[in-house]
Write a structure and sequence with these properties.
Blueprint: H1 4-16, E1 25-29, E2 34-38, H2 45-56, E3 60-64, E4 67-70, H3 71-87, E5 96-100, H4 105-116, E6 120-123, H5 130-140, E7 144-147, H6 149-154, E8 163-166, H7 173-176, H8 178-181, E9 199-205, E10 213-218, H9 219-243, E11 252-255, H10 262-275, E12 278-281, H11 287-297, E13 301-304, H12 306-313, E14 328-331, H13 338-347, E15 352-358, E16 366-369, H14 371-376, E17 383-384, E18 390-394, E19 407-412, E20 419-420, H15 424-430, E21 437-445, E22 451-456, E23 460-463, E24 466-469, H16 470-478, E25 483-493, E26 497-506, H17 514-522, E27 533-536, H18 551-567
Parallel strand pairs: 3-12, 5-6, 5-7, 6-9, 7-8, 11-12, 13-14, 14-15, 26-27
Antiparallel strand pairs: 1-2, 3-4, 9-10, 10-20, 15-16, 16-17, 18-19, 19-21, 21-22, 23-24, 25-26
């Protein structure tokens, strides 16, 4: 039976989406299938940015160390840089413009400027090695890459298309983006009139094939994905207001997740433009620094991978800080153990833990579980976000399964991406003709339509919100001339959710130590992908009848060894 909160939320959604209401919906034909969309949403990100930076004007938007910018400041800066992209660099509609950098105000201004100029913001993973960055740039065929000094240094000696333009952090945008602005153009340069069908973004996702894929979204998808979160926020706010529990202060959130990930980009950053939320940037995660900023800036909403809120809840210095302003501790990007839900609520009784489920390919939108509903069903990632999201469990033939039957989780929405860049095979495998996106996750919906994720169909490890392709790591292992066989799989970890480990069988006569192999991997793949433990074996790895390595057998053999290591 639906809970009291479910009934209140459903009633609020019905009122907010009714004809003439702020979130009125209409059907949109998305190339052969129809999906609801928010009727009054701006047609492109350019319109969205202009609308909301003007609407909130002098209100604080970004806080980054000593830098404090209003919505109007950011809108003015983005317009100036967009003019530089068009007038100085000749950026045309659809040109892929990469960003390879850590979080900062100038990252945000660059992103806004790219999409306003009609470019396709290509968000390169800032944790990648130079080799991986070059592969991403080449895959997306970037015309320009805006990179900070650290990522530019990694690219030294690499071959990639396009032109690299250095930019700086921790300074005014005119200084930080001077190398771009010096090429000409400016605030008066005419910009293209964009529509929903123009390309907006490419974000990278690790798939079961091992090779990163570029998930492409148009302006319609990103705007509507953002509005899915706006609808969720307004629905909850409506219920809290009617209960007399709505916060009176400006909403405020920390930015402690990378902006090149969809969680940082859409629900956190882009949504904040519409709801007037102040964003306080943290260049590097540190639980105590987060608590200091929560107290100083009166943060109301915290979001990150689940381990972050758990670290705050269990921190020995937690009681030294006033965290009373922060009433929501959201998690996404990785599973949160049900025991963590209980411990977070006990440690922070004034607040509620929340959990979201979405993917790069859905622009972060999907399902959510919040407040007392989450406490009642802590193993669930919640119900589909109304009014835009549909979620089903499908069998191998694509047929919808009934309640409590495990199948592949599929999502259909106006917010879904339009395909993988230059990869029609992967696109066809992921998107069904009737619009359903196959997520690769296995799960079921219970009788109340709450989604439970139970496993993954893809060979993927999720380490603290970062997707790791086992095949990609295995390919890196096989690149070592002394590795004859290798296999990579995940082991549970309370802090990160999962960690990658591996087993390798050396070539005959080779004396290859774990330390040597790890050092080799660190030269070729990002640090978060490198297995935390590599076991050397002296016999060929077990095989299935298909001749594939039997990972289940390896995991059954080495998981007890790993667990014993953690208790010693």
């Amino acid at each position: 039976m639906p809970s009291e909160l479910d009934n209140a939320l459903n009633d609020a959604v019905a009122r907010l989406t009714a004809p003439g209401a702020p979130l009125e919906t209409e059907l949109f034909d998305r190339g052969g299938w129809s999906a609801p969309m928010i009727k009054g949403a701006p047609p492109s990100l350019a319109h969205y940015i202009e609308m909301y930076t003007a609407a909130h004007g002098a209100v604080d938007f970004l806080v980054d160390g000593d830098i404090r910018l209003s919505f109007a400041d950011v809108g003015k800066a983005a317009r100036h840089v967009a003019g530089g992209l068009v007038g100085g660099l000749g950026v045309a509609r659809g040109d892929r413009i990469g960003i390879a950098a850590r979080n900062s105000t100038n990252w945000i201004i660059a992103y806004l400027a790219i999409v306003m100029a009609g470019g396709c913001a290509t968000l390169l993973n800032g944790w990648w090695t130079g080799e991986e960055l070059a592969e991403g740039i080449e895959l997306a065929e970037c015309r320009y890459v805006l990179a900070d000094a650290q990522r530019a240094k990694r690219l030294d000696g690499q071959t990639y298309p396009g032109e690299l333009i250095l930019f700086e952090h921790d300074c005014h945008y005119e200084q930080g983006l001077a190398n771009l602005l010096s090429r000409g153009g400016g605030a008066d340069t005419p910009l293209p009139e964009l529509t929903g069908s123009d390309l907006a973004t490419i974000l990278f996702t690790s798939g079961s094939t091992g090779q990163s894929k570029g998930a492409v979204s148009d302006h319609l998808g990103v705007v509507q994905g953002t509005y899915s979160y706006i609808a969720q926020t307004l629905t909850v706010l409506t219920v809290l207001t009617e209960r007399g529990e709505a916060p009176a202060s400006q909403p405020c959130s920390l930015v402690n997740v990378p902006l090149f990930h969809v969680t940082g980009e859409v629900p956190l950053f882009l949504q904040s433009l519409a709801i007037g939320r102040k964003l306080v940037l943290m260049p590097k995660w540190d639980a105590e620094e987060a608590m200091r900023l929560i107290e100083k800036e009166k943060v109301t909403y915290f979001v990150g991978v689940p381990l972050m809120s758990f670290e705050i809840a269990t921190h020995p210095n937690r009681d030294k800080y006033d965290l009373s302003s922060c009433v929501s501790f959201a998690g996404g990007g990785a599973p949160r153990p049900p025991e963590h839900v209980r411990r977070i609520k006990e440690a922070l009784p004034h607040a509620f833990p929340l959990l979201g489920y979405g993917l790069t390919e859905t622009n972060g939108a999907g399902a959510g579980n919040l407040n007392e509903n989450y406490l009642a069903k802590p193993g669930s990632t919640g119900t589909a976000t109304k009014p835009l999201m549909e979620i089903r469990a499908l069998d191998d033939d694509g047929k919808v399964l009934g309640p409590n039957r495990v199948g592949e989780v599929a999502i259909r929405s106006i917010a879904n991406f339009i395909g993988y860049w230059r990869n029609p095979e992967a696109t066809a495998a992921a998107i069904m003709p009737d619009g359903w996106f196959r997520t690769g996750d296995l799960g079921y919906l219970d009788e109340d339509e709450y989604l439970f994720i139970v496993d993954r169909k893809k060979d993927i490890i999720i380490r603290g919100g970062e997707n790791i392709s086992c095949i990609e790591v295995e390919e890196a292992l096989y690149a070592h001339p002394d590795v004859a066989e290798a296999s990579v799989f995940g082991v549970p970890d309370e802090r990160f959710g999962e960690l990658p480990v591996g087993v390798y069988f050396p070539e005959e006569g080779a004396d290859l130590s774990e330390e040597e192999l790890r050092a080799f991997l660190q030269q070729h793949i990002a640090a978060f992908k490198v297995p935390v433990k590599l076991w050397r074996v002296d016999e060929a790895l077990p095989r299935l009848g298909t001749e594939k390595v039997d990972k289940r057998a390896l995991r059954a053999r080495f998981l007890p060894v790993w667990e014993a290591m953690q208790t010693t």
